[in-house]
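Rotation project, supervised by the postdoc (A.L.). Task for the rotation student: set up a whole-complex structure prediction and record inputs and outputs verbatim in this book. Inputs entered:
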Amino acid sequence: MKKIKYLVFALLIPVISMAQTSSGESGGSRNYFGIAVGANATTNGLGGDIAVSLLKWLDVRVGYEKLEMSMSPMNLSLSGQDFTLTPTIRTGGWSAIADINLLGGLYVAGGAYLTSFNPSFKIMSANPMTIGAITYTPNDMGELDLAIKPQNKLAPYVGLGFGTNIPRNHRFSMNFEIGAYNMGSYVVETSGTNLFAGNSDNESITQLNKMLKGFSWSGMYPVIKLGISYKFFGSTK
Amino acid sequence: MKKVLIFGFSLFVIMFFTRCTIQDDLAKLSSFATDSLKIVLGTPEFSHTIHFEVRDAATQGYITSNVKIKLSGAGARKVYNNLGEQPADSTFTAVMGILDLVLDPRIDSASLAANPVSFNITPVADGYVGVQQTVKVSNEKFKIVEVSMINLSGQQPSGVSVSQANLSPAYSGDQTSNSVLQQIDGMNTTIEVQPNTTLKNASGQVLKGNISSQVVFYNPTDPVAQNMLAGALTGPIQLENNSTVDSKLVSAGMYTAELKVGSETVKTLNGEGLKLKTRVPDDLVNPKTGNTIQEGDIIPMWSKEENSGTWKFEKNSVVKKDADGFYLEDIVNHLSYWNWDWVSDTNNYYDDGPVITWNLVNFKSGQVNIEAHLNKSGVNYGTQYEAIYNNSTSDFHSTPMNVSGYLKITDRAPVAGRHLTFSPDSIPFTDLSPQNYNVKVTATYDPTLYTADITVKIHSDDPTDKTIIMPSTFINYSQSTPLSWIPANMKNGLVSVKLLPGTNYSMLGIFGGKWVFGTFRLNDIGNGQLQFVFSDFSSTVNNITSDPIDRPADGSSIEFTYNVTVPASTFSSFQKVGRPIQVNK
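Outputs recorded:
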């Protein structure tokens, strides 16, 4: 909650300032209503949105982004035992965001993400292991999965952008946006199979999650977005 | 420019409020990862467990002193303790009457069903004598093997005669010069060292002097005695024509004899040898003829090759008769198990008999007695002990043909507060042929009996150790008096037990060559609360009294975590199973 206050405080400064400076410029009679579709490349994945300009200074958009990427296995050595660690980056989600357009293409965005944030690591022994006289393959031993999940899947979002998500005088426009959504906290979950199955009830992970909840930045996900929009309905004049 | 400055200022504010804590927070995380983060490791869960229960044959109580169980035969190298260890001499130790071994997990179930693993077990304990028996594991997840031993100084089981004697033959040169007789069951059963006999040990060394003799004789018509031999008389049999079959012997009388001169064990008796003689009960049925025994009937004599567990044909003996009745006598020249038996064959016995499929309601597993009451005297099947779980089957093998009777099913290990009902509880039959039966077993519990889901987490007392072991194994628990062990499957540390408040329970966990034994109880401390007390555990395990636990709603389980702290030296033995890594050590 504290970090949201910081962000709101920080973002209110330009909003108020811009609102004051733009009050004289925004009194024209243009029809800003329009509908646009957009394609985005973001730190939250690739995706698209559909945006509607409701008022001259207000757009709303609904979008979906997805990022899922399995990385090459990495070797991990712990006290002489070799493991393979395979990270998978998995994030994205649905978003519903309102943009308040300020002067000169600057806008403030606020809304929420229904996030699918879920990066994970799969850890397996790199070598067979001999227990007593019986040798187990890594598959026999099973795997340990460590996933980072959101405390809240519905995460409030604020951002600041340049450009617009709905072109005003053209069919196409571009935008650049930087922001963050707040999932409450990161929650580490562990699970495993075979020899690692007991990690679903790992007390030290419970303690770790308590610690994470106490960190102001825990649960924040930064979003840097570059988008292009096409206005397919509405005036371009 | 003004807008850029405003935007930059905003970002600065954001970064300022977050960056200042990140460094501290990351330091805390790093410290936590180094000091407190632990990894939970299980132990391998084996598909096929062989559960040995070592009992006094007369009292049926557990033999609580340590019992060595030596494995031999072709399948012995496929059997391990639950730490995956296999002693070089294939000898394992039963503790408090219990030993759990496992089959090599690399054997898949399909191949096991087609090619069962057979091995022989020979129990050895001070003050007791037992017989070697053959164990065959086909596809059972949890096979119970009953090991009965005779207390040499205590009560002897029905139909078993034990005799210990010191024999003092005279010697002329290396040979005995007179005969010495030992009565086992009065004059009904005797052994007699013949004159002109040279005693030798296994390496061929001649032995001379007083003979310390221990002989056990098993009455062929006594169900208790024959039940002890059920496993001993089943297995590979080398016939007169030297072919080997896997079958069952039907006993007409069996000896186990151990003769020692000093500390040396007699293995061969060259020359005239050792005469075995026993009376044959009049009502003993000759399975070859289907009639009671007659003078002149032929009964083969067999000895056991102990390494392979194979019964080897030695000679054909002829039933004789005198004024006191029928008898068998013959001379042997080496010591082993000696047996007068008929081989069960498909003319008289079914290789595979009835099959019972169990349908369990309201509980997960249990043990039953299946007593075969046969309407034909002289034909014994005895009691078969079975571990059952839902949809498991109990198979009968080498069952006699054309014998009617009934199978009676009862609870083998009654638990206070638990009641098992069997439907049907008795299965009549006209013939022990391969028929399928379904038996529904329903458990009901007294309201005072609680289900406790106990999670066991094993920690090292070395605080730098980053591993927690949550084992998968079978533990055994029982009301402390009398002991009646209930095997309970512990999976990744979690085991479910049924407990009566205020009752002492013993608990036994075996991990390879180590074990944990102690007492626990669930106390009702009033105000709707319960409390666990773990006590009397050995010095390697901490005793605890739990915090009060709210009494669960009807039908709910009590959940409790027992954090067991053991010395690092003990913990390392668990780690041999559960620990592929050492983290931050």
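Student's summary: The domain at 2-20+35-234 of chain A is CATH 2.40.160 (Porin).
Supervisor addendum: Chain A touches chain B through 50 residues (CB under 8 Å).
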